[in-house]
Structures are given as structure tokens and as C-alpha cells.
Design goal:
This protein is mainly beta. The chain is built from no helices and 4 strands. The protein starts with 15 loop residues before the first strand and ends with a strand.
Length: 68
């Protein structure tokens, strides 16, 4: 799996992503990633593109979750 985060321009509404909320340490090994569908894509950020998920959670995308 690639460690490269997608760009905001690569994201669209309805795709499933793994995010980290803004108050979590992106580099922490014990963080709990959140997985959900994108509702709104905001902008690129050094921590990863900022999005809002359909459940209302806002965070930075770490990776796109591909269907198996």
C-alpha cells in the first residue's frame, strides 16, 4: 500500500476514504483512523486533503479505501 496521500483534486463525493480528525496526531501509531464516504472536499493541506464525511466528521484524508 502506498503512503502517498491523494490530492484534493483526486477526491470526489461518495468515494470511501480513511481520515484523521484535526485534533489527532497524524504521525501517532495508536490513532484510530475513521473510514467513511466523502460528502464535501475542502482543500489540500500538508496533513492531507480536508474533507467532510457523510456522517459529518471533518478530517484529513490519509488514503482512499478501495473495494476488495
Amino acid at each position: 500500500m502506498s503512503n502517498e496521500r491523494p490530492a484534493a483534486s483526486d477526491l470526489r463525493q461518495g468515494i470511501t476514504v480513511e481520515i484523521v480528525q484535526g485534533d489527532q496526531d497524524v504521525e501517532s501509531e495508536d490513532r484510530e483512523p475513521l473510514i467513511g464516504e466523502v460528502a464535501t472536499v475542502y482543500e489540500d493541506d500538508p496533513k492531507g486533503p480536508q474533507v467532510e464525511l457523510k456522517n459529518g466528521v471533518v478530517g484529513h484524508v490519509q488514503s482512499v479505501v478501495h473495494d476488495e
